[in-house]
Structures are given as C-alpha cells and as structure tokens.
C-alpha cells in the first residue's frame, strides 16, 4: 500500500487505523501540526486517533507506514496510550482551521477554509502546504468558487480567530455516531462547542446531548434560546429529557416544559415525579406496546422501526387498551427471539410470557440490577398498583445510572497500566 505525497486531512477523518498485524486500533480524528517561525508552513508531527473507551492518543507521523483514504497503517513499535494533550505551539488542523475566515493574496479576496493538505518532502517531513478555500465574495461569478492555494498565500491561519462558521466542520463530523460526535464536541473550546451544537438539527442534537456529561448538556442547552431548547427536548427520549431537566432549577424546568408540546411534555413531567434511583426515574415511558390480538407479523414490523434502540426493540409488551402509558392491564411480554420462532399469523395473546413479576415504580436500582441479571433480561416492565404498564427499564438505563456520574467525562477513563503500554503500533 503506497502513500500519496499530498493528503487532504479532512478526508482522513474517521479513517480506520491498523497495527502491523492488521488489527484495528482506532480511527483518525485530527492531525497535529507544529507552528514554525519565519513564515514556514507548519510541520505535521502526527495524527490524533480515537481508541475504544473514547481515549484519544497521539500517533507520531514517523511511525505511520502508509496513509490513504481507506486506512492508516502503523509500523512496529510501542503504542503510547497516554491521553493526547496539545502543546502550546501546536494546532489541531480540523478543529482549529476548518471554517476559518481568511484572505488570499495577492488580491486579498475573502474566503473560508474547507480543507488543508499536508505534503511530504523528499526528506520525509510532512508539512501543511496547500489550503482549499471557498471564495466568499459578493460577485455572482465568483461566489462559492473553490480554489486550492499555497499555504503562504493565505492570511488569517495563525492566531485565534472568532470568524469561523460550522459548515465544513459539520461535514467532517456528520458521519460519526452520536457518542463519537459527543466525544468530539468535548474537545472543542466551550464557545466553539456551543456554536457547532447549535448548528445541528434538532434530532441530531438531541441524540448527541444524550451522550454528553450532565454539565455539558446544561451548558449547551443554556446557550440555545428557550424555544429551540424546548424543540430539542421534544426530540429526546422522555427519560433522557427528564434526566437533563433534573439538572436545571425547578423554575427553568417549568418554563421549558410549558414551551414543549403537551403530548411531548406530559411523559417527561410524569418521570420527573419519581424519586431518584428508582425504576420510575430511570425507565423509558415509550416501550413497544401492542394488544393481545395483534399478530406476530405486526410485532416484528414494529420492532424493525429504525428509531428504536436495540434494548427497546428486543421485546414487545402486551397490554389491554389504551396502548400508551399508562396502559390498560398489563398481560406480559414477548421477546423478539420468540417472535422469530412463531408463525406470523399467530396472535400475541397466545405466545405472551408473564411468569416474571414486573417492577414497581418505587423498585430501587440495586434490586432492578439483581433481577435483570438473574433472568438474563435486557428490559423489564414497570407497572403501577392497578397493574397498568407505565414504562420499561432497559439494560442501557441501568448502566447509565449504575456507573459513576462522571463516566462520560473524557478524563474519567483510567490511565493505562504497564501492560497497556506494550501494545504493538506507534508511539507519540
């Protein structure tokens, strides 16, 4: 596998990183360049890769044997698993340069940075040599025209600039899973993070907020106007929205709930009434619910809906009407594996299982964990005193509330031990 002499860095975002044995060790998230004096282009010293558990590490450019649009391959050596920390004379190319407003000499026309190329010299040194700039002028014949220009012709690349948009950074981030995008946002300065978050559409931002630590959720929500904040809360699962609102003062909770559509706000209000650490406080109020006269085929169609999480789609809860929580009398549940074994025309009432006692809203989290582990369940029903289904606790709900509150924090990942340092790959 050969490496081209010129590589545009935005195209590397998300590319898999492999060790010499062909095992994937992470994905590229950025490139690190060192600022040099006398107008010399910055030297690219390495890449930032994201490992499992959201750890970002530094990969020295000297340890990389090949780079292309499909893979980055490391040479032999020791992989340094220390968390990456940028030094004062370094720049993160994608995070800090994309969307920057610049001027291109000699004419001084304004533009916005879309991508930056690094190029390898005969001596093997990589430098930032060319910049892809989209013109930002009022002349119709040139508006939006993309040009590739030499690094030294571009003014405004050094120093801190507040004149940046979000379009090109969002283009780099758009293919990331919500959890990975949330992780990337944590690397940005607060103002930049809030700017990028605000540029996401409501549904995407709702998914990302659910993956962020509580204090980041609150700060991003506070940076939005209240109407937009209410719209985003409506897109969140009710249990996630309730968790976020629980971090706000009660008067602010009331304002946002009043701005939400009643049908979206009511389940959240109900969840906010339950005591912390109970089934009621961690459950989802929107599991898959069907009547006993629904067919197996109808149930399979419901759990195939793409917006359902794997834990929610793993089973169907069977109740009497109404089919929204709180439902009519709870009858039992059917796991998706059972649905796959039954004839499609059979009725759910004939295959329902009800030999496990449901949870109550007041059931404490340790008891929920014990019972789910005992019966190897990924979800359990929650019923009220009159045996109406009010929600379901899923395994991801239990994990979220059993782990330490700071588990989503980047710095909460334990430092590597000596055994971790001996992994084959590249060092920083």
Overview of the molecule:
Residues 283-351, 352-412 form the CBS domain. It comes from Micromonospora rhizosphaerae. Pfam families: CBS (PF00571), MgtE_N (PF03448), SH3_actinomycetes (PF26205). The protein is built from 16 helices and 18 strands. With 428 residues, the protein is α+β, with helices and mostly antiparallel strands. Among the domains are: 7-92, Roll (SH3 type barrels), CATH 2.30.30; 178-273, MgtE N-terminal domain-like (MgtE N-terminal fold, Alpha Horseshoe), CATH 1.25.60; 289-402, CBS-domain (Roll). Strands 2, 3, 4, 5, 6, 7 and 8 form a seven-stranded mixed sheet that branches. Strand 3 and strand 4 (43-50) form a beta hairpin. Helix 3 packs across helix 5 (202-209) and helix 8 (238-245) crosses helix 10. It is elongated and about 80 Å long. The model is unreliable at 413-428 (pLDDT under 50).
SSE order and pairing:
Elements (H helix, E strand, L loop, with lengths): L5 E3 L7 E3 L5 E11 L8 E8 L5 E5 L3 E4 L3 E4 L15 E3 H5 L3 E4 L4 E12 L5 E10 L10 E5 L3 E2 L11 H7 L4 H9 L3 H10 L2 H8 L4 H10 L2 H10 L2 H8 L4 H10 L2 H11 L6 H4 L6 E2 L5 H8 L6 H4 L1 E5 L10 E6 H6 L23 H11 L3 E5 L5 E6 H8 L26
Parallel strand pairs: 2-7, 14-15
Antiparallel strand pairs: 1-10, 2-3, 3-4, 3-8, 4-5, 6-7, 9-10, 9-13, 10-11, 11-12, 15-16, 17-18
Helix pairs in contact: 3-5, 5-7, 7-9, 8-10, 15-16
């Amino acid at each position: 596998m050969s490496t081209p002499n010129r590589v545009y860095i935005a195209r590397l975002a998300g590319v898999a990183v492999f060790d010499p044995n062909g095992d994937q060790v992470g994905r590229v998230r950025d490139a690190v360049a060192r600022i040099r004096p006398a107008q010399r282009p910055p030297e690219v010293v390495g890449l930032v890769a994201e490992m499992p558990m959201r750890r970002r590490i530094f990969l020295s450019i000297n340890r990389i044997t090949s780079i292309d649009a499909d893979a980055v391959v490391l040479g032999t050596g020791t992989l340094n698993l220390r968390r990456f920390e940028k030094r004062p004379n370094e720049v993160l190319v994608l995070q800090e340069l994309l969307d920057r407003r610049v001027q291109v000499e000699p004419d001084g026309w304004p533009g916005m940075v879309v991508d930056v190329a690094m190029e390898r010299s005969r001596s093997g040194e990589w430098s930032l040599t060319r910049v892809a700039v989209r013109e930002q002028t009022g002349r119709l014949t040139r508006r939006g025209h993309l040009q590739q220009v030499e690094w030294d012709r571009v003014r405004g690349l050094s120093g801190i600039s507040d004149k940046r948009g979000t379009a090109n950074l969002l283009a780099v981030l758009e293919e990331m899973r919500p959890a990975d995008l949330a992780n990337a946002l944590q690397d940005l300065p607060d103002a930049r993070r809030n700017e990028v978050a605000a540029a996401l559409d409501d549904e995407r931002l709702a998914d990302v907020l659910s993956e962020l630590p509580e204090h980041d959720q609150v700060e991003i929500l506070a940076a939005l106007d209240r109407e937009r904040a209410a719209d985003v809360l409506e897109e969140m699962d009710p249990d996630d929205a309730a968790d976020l609102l629980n971090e706000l003062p009660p008067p602010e909770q009331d304002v946002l709930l009043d701005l939400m559509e009643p049908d979206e706000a009511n389940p959240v209000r109900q969840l906010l009434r339950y005591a912390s650490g109970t089934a009621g406080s961690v459950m989802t109020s929107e599991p898959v619910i069907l009547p006993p006269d629904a067919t197996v085929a109808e149930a399979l169609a419901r759990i195939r809906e793409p917006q359902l999480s794997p834990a929610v789609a793993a089973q169907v809860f069977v109740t009497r009407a109404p089919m929204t929580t709180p439902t009519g009398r709870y009858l039992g549940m059917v796991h998706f594996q059972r649905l796959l074994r039954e004839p499609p025309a059979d009725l759910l009432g004939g295959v329902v299982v009800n030999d496990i006692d449901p949870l109550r809203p007041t059931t404490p989290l340790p008891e929920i964990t014990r019972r789910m582990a005992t019966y190897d369940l990924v979800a359990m029903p929650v019923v009220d005193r009159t045996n109406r289904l009010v929600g379901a606790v899923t395994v991801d709900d239990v994990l979220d509330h059993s782990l330490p509150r700071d588990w989503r924090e980047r710095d909460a990942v334990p430092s590597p031990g000596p055994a971790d340092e001996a992994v084959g790959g590249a060092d920083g």
